[in-house]
Amino acid sequence: MSRPAGEHPAEPGPARRAARPAPGPGAPRHRAREVAFRVVYQSDLTGDAYAEAWAARGAEERLGGDQRRLVEAVLAVLANRGPEVDEELRRAAEHWSLPRLAATDRSVLRAAAAELLACPGTPARVVLDEAIEIAKRFGSEESGAFVNGVLDRIARRLRPDEF
Fold it and tell me: Which pTM does this prediction carry?
């Protein structure tokens, strides 16, 4: 016996979709991505290790378990594979050295590139869209377009099957 869309747990239909928060500001994973960005930014400015910056900031943040796991996954990639993430950024940010980038843009890019590596189940387009929104909110007028271009190159290299 077949079921209409939405009545099977693995097949979200209209009823299940309506219960999910819309992506973007206010959505739980968006909030987690913003916190990850802030921790990466803090670490970039202070020179503290990601774990130290998270320890200082994590207690202040009211995040659920899934949100904390996302932040910690991003920070773990940066702590363990930071040089690899930075090399991806250098390759994709043509004609821009990492120190030359604005700290906000560099931090958004690092966090999003780390999420692309840490969370293969999250669609690349979602990671990019969220990073662009964060860049627009915290960066300059050009940050959204710049972050989009760099992350698009990285995502196409890391996840070619999604494009």
Answer: 0.82
- CA 162 to CA 48: how far, in whole Å? 35
DSSP labels for 93-148? STT--GGGS-HHHHHHHHHHHHHHHH-TTS-HHHHHHHHHHHHHHHS-TTHHHHHH
Over residues 19-61, the pLDDT tens digits come to 333 445 558 899 999 999 999 999 999 999 999 999 988 888 8
Residue 17 pLDDT class (50, 70, 90 cuts): very low
Residue type, 54: W
CATH topology of domain 25-162: N-utilizing Substance Protein B Homolog; Chain A (1.10.940)
Structure letter (DSSP) for residue 139 = S
What is the helix (H) or strand (E) element at residue 157, kind and residue range? Answer: helix 143-158
Q: Structural domain boundaries of the chain?
A: 25-162
